[in-house]
Amino acid sequence: MTLREPATCSMPSMSADCFSNDIHKLDTTNMMWTLISAKGTPARWRDFHSATIIGTKMYVFGGRADRFGPFHSNNEIYCNRIKVFDTETNSWLDSPPTPVLPEGRRSHSAFSYNGELYVFGGYNARLNRHFHDLWKFNPVSLSWRKIEPKGKGPCPRRRQCCCRVGDKIILFGGTSPSPEEGMGDEFDLMDHSDLYILDFSPSLKTLCKLAVIQYSLDQSCLPHDIRWELSAMTTNSTISRPIVSSQG
Question: What is the pTM of this model?
Answer without folding.
Answer: 0.85
